[in-house]
Design brief:
It comes from Cyprinus carpio. The chain has 1 helix and 19 strands. The protein has one helix at residues 2-11, and strands at residues 23-30, 35-37, 49-54, 59-65, 68-71, 82-84, 91-93, 102-109, 114-124, 131-134, 140-143, 153-166, 169-175, 178-185, 190-199, 204-212, 215-226, 237-249, 252-265. The strands form 4 sheets. A 6-stranded mixed beta sheet has the order 1-9-8-3-4-5. A 6-stranded antiparallel beta sheet has the order 14-13-16-17-18-19, with no helix packed on it. Strands 10, 11, 12 and 15 form a 4-stranded antiparallel beta sheet that branches. A hairpin with a 4-residue loop joins strand 3 (49-54) and strand 4 (59-65). It is elongated and about 80 Å long. The chain is mostly beta strands and 266 residues long. It has 2 domains: 17-124, Immunoglobulin-like (Sandwich), CATH 2.60.40.10; 131-265, no CATH class. The termini are far apart. The longest helix is centred in the first third of the chain and has 10 residues, at 2-11. The model is unreliable at 1-9, 11-15 and 225-266 (pLDDT under 50).
Length: 266
């Protein structure tokens, strides 16, 4: 009987006339963070009732009525993640998951009026740092057209930027601040890669960026052409590539790892 009563409370929807006061707002958050859905109420009065509902069926998940706070989690969607502010009725969801992406509706009932507010919450998965790889066997060297100073050598390498288990993101190559190429996906949890041909004629900075609407992660690559005269084989052109991996995002500090590898063109 007790189980049936709890189930009935979960399905109960408060019916009221919201009229023109029904407004829509969109908010976004990264998975694992906390998000507060605000009522914009300064202070709840003793007889006020605030009800939070979830999804298209407007399933009741939390409420405060006559200063008593109740939360409902019929399907185990939220666990112990829900908290209501006793002063404002705002709802905080801790450690949000992607399955919490949904419409949330709050109904505010006072002695004067009933108002409603709908919030569209989008939860994005955390972004990995993109990885840049280069296969020395894909490097080649050729001669450019002759000039007054003679022909010059142009060296190329194929780079690949990759990210795994991503969705709803864009992967892009930049040279300095100029966009070279990009690819976007809307699928969930796929592997994504984007190739790039690089000419080692002068020092350039390339960046591979993965981003969603609220955050980005970037890996920088600096190319510096040089001829190592100390090599045993003077005909080998040696190129040193320095990778600076910097994780960047809103409210996140920079994560820096630097390593080097050499690409030999034979």
């Amino acid at each position: 009987m007790k189980i049936l009563l709890v189930f009935s409370l979960c399905l109960l929807v408060v019916h009221g006339v919201c009229g023109d006061t029904d407004v829509m707002k969109s908010v976004s958050v990264t998975e694992g963070d906390s998000i507060t859905l605000h009522t914009n109420v300064t202070e709840i009065q003793s007889d006020d009732q605030i009800v939070w509902m979830f999804g298209p069926k407007e399933t009741r998940i939390a409420e405060i009525h006559k200063q008593k706070i109740s939360t409902y989690d019929c399907k185990g969607t939220f666990g112990d993640r829900l908290q209501i502010d006793s002063q404002t009725g705002s709802l905080t969801i801790g450690n949000v998951r992607t399955e919490h992406t949904e419409l949330y509706k709050v109904q505010i009932v006072t002695n004067e009026a009933t108002s409603c507010k709908t919030i569209k919450l989008t939860v994005y998965a955390r972004l990995p740092v993109p990885v840049i790889t280069s296969n020395p066997s894909n490097c080649s060297s050729s001669s450019s057209s002759p000039s007054s100073s003679g022909s010059s050598s142009v060296s190329n390498c194929s780079l690949l930027c990759s990210a795994v288990n991503v969705g709803h993101v864009t992967l892009s190559w930049y040279k300095g601040n100029s966009l070279l190429s990009s690819i976007s996906v809307s699928d969930l949890s796929i592997s994504l890669s984007l190739p790039l041909e690089v000419e080692y004629q002068e020092k350039n900075t390339y960046s591979c960026v993965i981003n969603n609407p609220i955050r980005n992660q970037t890996t920088h690559l600096d190319t510096d052409e040089r001829l190592d005269d100390d090599d045993d084989d003077d005909d080998d052109e040696q190129f040193e590539v320095s990778l600076l991996m910097a994780g960047m995002g809103r409210g996140a500090g920079n994560i820096e790892n630097k390593w080097k590898y050499k690409c030999y063109l034979i």
